[in-house]
């Protein structure tokens, strides 16, 4: 399934740039870039993760700016992401402690969020605005079934969900070994990939297209792909594969308070 592509950016307040999903859903959602914060190199500037050895004071200021400038009703329910398949309700989250890779809510004012720097953030929302979710997915998460588990956790039929795939590493930059492709296929996932040279066992994996296919198989028909590559756009995004020691952007979503 080919996802629709959208990249609507806005820069409110003091320079925090937000990317908003172009979808007709009555929710508050967006993706940050690395611009508009106070963190120093190599985390410059809007790093929102506490686990990457950045100055915690800077991270908390960045988070404060995000809440204020994005108009969030609360600080996001930050997860401790572990490349697994645990999905939790926002009520269960102890910020920066709860281990999970997706969080959902059916309560107004609770902000679901995930942090990424090449892995793929996916936002989900029911068409009627009754529930939302934020999902973190790398290739391991896709192979393990994080998308399927997250879709099944929501109290809404898959056909009534909208999905937005946020900034992640693009196919051209994401070279993986044959064992990655084999593990995904063994798990029943149809990975989208290409080989530039038939003589090599390396492949270029397309996370976004693979996720769009999984969402479609789950029954989610409305899929938007921002089409932004974190590796290619160093000014806007962090990339672990490009830089190693680096920060994290956020994907957030909530029902209106």
TrEMBL record:
Organism: Spiribacter salinus M19-40
Highest classification ranks of the organism: Bacteria, Pseudomonadati, Pseudomonadota, Gammaproteobacteria, Chromatiales
Keywords: Hydrolase, Metal-binding, Transferase, Zinc
Gene Ontology molecular function, alphabetical: copper ion binding; hydrolase activity; S-methyl-5-thioadenosine phosphorylase activity
Signal peptide: none
Catalytically driven reaction(s): adenosine + phosphate = alpha-D-ribose 1-phosphate + adenine; inosine + phosphate = alpha-D-ribose 1-phosphate + hypoxanthine; adenosine + H2O + H(+) = inosine + NH4(+); S-methyl-5'-thioadenosine + phosphate = 5-(methylsulfanyl)-alpha-D-ribose 1-phosphate + adenine
NCBIfam families attached to this UniProt entry: peptidoglycan editing factor PgeF (TIGR00726)
Protein's name in the database: Purine nucleoside phosphorylase
Annotated InterPro entries: Cu_polyphenol_OxRdtase, Cu_polyphenol_OxRdtase_sf, Cytotoxic_necrot_fac-like_cat
Top-level taxon in the UniProt lineage: Bacteria
Family membership: Belongs to the purine nucleoside phosphorylase YfiH/LACC1 family.
Gene3D superfamilies cross-referenced by the UniProt entry: CNF1/YfiH-like putative cysteine hydrolases
Keyword Kinase attributed: no
């Amino acid at each position: 399934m080919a996802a629709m592509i959208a990249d609507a950016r806005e820069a409110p307040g003091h320079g925090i740039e937000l990317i908003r999903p172009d979808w007709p859903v009555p929710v508050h959602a967006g993706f940050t870039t690395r611009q508009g914060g106070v963190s120093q190199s190599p985390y410059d500037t809007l790093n929102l993760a506490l686990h990457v050895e950045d100055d915690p004071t800077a991270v908390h200021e960045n988070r404060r700016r995000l809440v204020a400038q994005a108009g969030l009703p609360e600080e996001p329910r930050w997860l401790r992401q572990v490349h697994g398949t645990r999905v939790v309700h926002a009520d269960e989250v102890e910020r920066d402690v709860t281990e999970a890779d997706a969080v959902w809510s059916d309560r107004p004012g609770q902000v679901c969020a995930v942090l990424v720097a090449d892995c793929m953030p996916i936002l989900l929302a029911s068409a009627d605005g009754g529930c939302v979710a934020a999902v973190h997915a790398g290739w391991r998460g896709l192979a393990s079934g994080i998308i399927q588990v997250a879709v099944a956790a929501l109290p809404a039929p898959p056909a009534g969900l909208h999905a937005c795939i946020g900034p992640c590493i693009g196919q051209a930059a994401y070279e993986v070994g044959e064992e990655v492709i084999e593990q995904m296929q063994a798990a029943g996932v149809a990975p989208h990939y290409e080989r530039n040279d038939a003589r090599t066992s390396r492949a270029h994996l397309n996370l976004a297209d693979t996720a769009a296919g999984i969402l479609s198989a789950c029954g989610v028909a409305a899929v938007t792909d921002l089409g932004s590559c974190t590796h290619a756009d160093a000014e806007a995004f962090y990339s672990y594969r490009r830089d190693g020691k680096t920060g994290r952007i956020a994907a957030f979503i909530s029902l209106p308070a």
